[in-house]
Amino acid sequence: MNNHQEFGNRVTQGDGASSLSDHATHVAGTIIGAGVKSDAQGMAPDAELTAYNWGNDDSEMASAASNGLEISNHSYGYLRGWYKSNGEWNWGGDESISSTEDYRFGFYSNSSKDWDQIAYNAPHYLIVKSAGNDRGDGPGSDPSTAEQDGGANGYDCIGTRGVAKNLLTVGAAKDVTNYTGPESVDISSFSSFGPADDGRIKPDIVANGVGLYSSTANNTSSYSSYSGTSMSSPNTTGVLALLQKHYRNTHGGASMNAATMKAL
Question: Between 1.10.10.10, 3.40.190.10, 3.40.50.200, 3.40.50.150, what CATH number should domain 11-263 receive?
């Protein structure tokens, strides 16, 4: 919903998508919500946002990056491993490859390569990707079925695009109100863990993705609290937008390289 009261005139629809989505509106508000309702203020409340349907993402990303886009958020993914449909667990793995786990978890695929190529071709463009909410999904410990996503210890359950090398993959943690050390960070039970099959650490970072209050599409003043890496990813995207703005303000208008943003 591009006319929510949190957005003003700062949201543009970049393609022909016409349906409204609570999920997408919540994600947008987490990035750029103005704070009309203070609890729903986004991380970059003065930023502008262009929204796209996810269907033609590769070509749209490449085109936007060639025209100067510096940061994009991707709070979506494809079904991997176990998923629920009509209240029933279904398994989306390929039994001809593995009957115990979905081989696509942690797998560097052609889609991973394609996103890496897009990022490589646009060195000032950083792709921010949600890690996924697959950890622990599945019907339980029935030995006749594939193991729960992530197995007994919860590792290796990030989908193919999330393990691409040149993007920033974001997991979800609970809000930290009093940081005293690493033990203060409580990773959500659903947030997908790596590593990638080649041993690289994923996700790259975690952010608050539990109980985030933001705009929804029911009407121009509706809000709700959601949880998921779909919420932690835009949280991070908004922070990156602020870092990029600060860099330009202190470096004569020059933009920060995407690799520098990722390193920060």
Answer: 3.40.50.200
